[in-house]
Design brief:
The protein has 255 residues and is of the alpha/beta class. It contains 5 helices and 11 strands.
């Protein structure tokens, strides 16, 4: 990917999608040049620091430039999935899982919880990884809340005639999002309730009858979910490693 310079954008809208997810729309003329390469496209976000100030790097050597900033000035850096990019309107949608104000609230969640129209952040395209090989005949998507924006974008762009199964773990029915539907798409929402994270969706995976044909598996979310999914599919199901993409978007702290 060509070198880039972080773009300053402005919050144009904030709305709740569910009690625990917010969509923040940012706008700025520079977004017309945002490099979008796939449905699980990541955006690197430069958020205001603890003092509420935002200073962006100004060159395409942004990483060493940012590292050289005094800690009191340096912005907070986080990656989030682009849910929607509209180059003509120069707008970009980012969906955030909200964790309230407790110990589990990270910088991204805390910022989104309090975001208001007119607020500023920086964004930078950070690539995408969803790449089903041309010989794929069916797909399996496994995710938790943190990967729902990517799953939704993947289903938006789903090829006609290819069966896609999505196993999606959330807390309860209030976390379910409207997703694209078609005869080729099977979405199964799995509720963990107050129980342990990852176990319900992994149990559903173990019980799943996989289709015949050539698969492509995309698994993302909490780190253990992604790695355990891959291990099961390779060791118990005989899926070749090169047919599986897996990524830990975040890691649950030990209890």
């Amino acid at each position: 990917m060509p070198k880039q310079i972080p773009m300053m954008v402005t919050v144009a809208g904030v709305r709740r999608l569910t009690p625990r997810m917010a969509r923040v729309t940012v706008a700025g003329d520079e977004l017309r040049g945002f490099q979008y390469v796939g449905p699980d496209q990541l955006a690197r976000l430069f958020l205001p620091n603890a003092s509420g100030e935002l200073t962006l790097p100004v060159t395409d050597s942004w990483w060493p430039e940012m590292c050289a900033m005094p800690e009191a000035v340096r912005p907070v850096l986080r990656n989030y999935t682009v849910r929607r990019l509209d180059p003509e309107a120069a707008e970009l949608d980012l969906d955030f899982v909200l964790h309230g104000s407790g110990e589990h609230a990270g910088p991204g969640s805390s910022w989104a919880e309090n975001a208001q129209v007119g607020d500023k952040i920086g964004v930078l395209s950070d690539g995408a990884d969803y790449q089903p090989p041309p010989d794929t005949t069916w797909q399996l998507l496994i995710a938790d809340e943190s990967a729902l924006p990517a799953v939704a974008a993947i289903l938006d762009q789903a090829p006609t005639g290819q069966h896609i199964i999505a196993l999606l773990e959330v807390t309860d029915e209030t976390d379910e999002l409207p997703l694209p539907t078609s005869p080729d798409i099977t979405v199964r929402w799995i509720h963990r309730g107050t129980g342990p994270r990852n176990k319900p969706v992994l149990a559903a995976l173990h019980e799943l009858d996989l289709p015949e044909g050539t698969p492509y598996i995309w698994a993302a979310g909490e780190s253990t979910l992604a790695t355990t999914t891959r291990r099961h599919l390779v060791k118990q199901r005989g899926i070749p490693k090169d047919r599986i993409y897996f990524c830990g978007y975040w890691r649950e702290a030990p209890s």
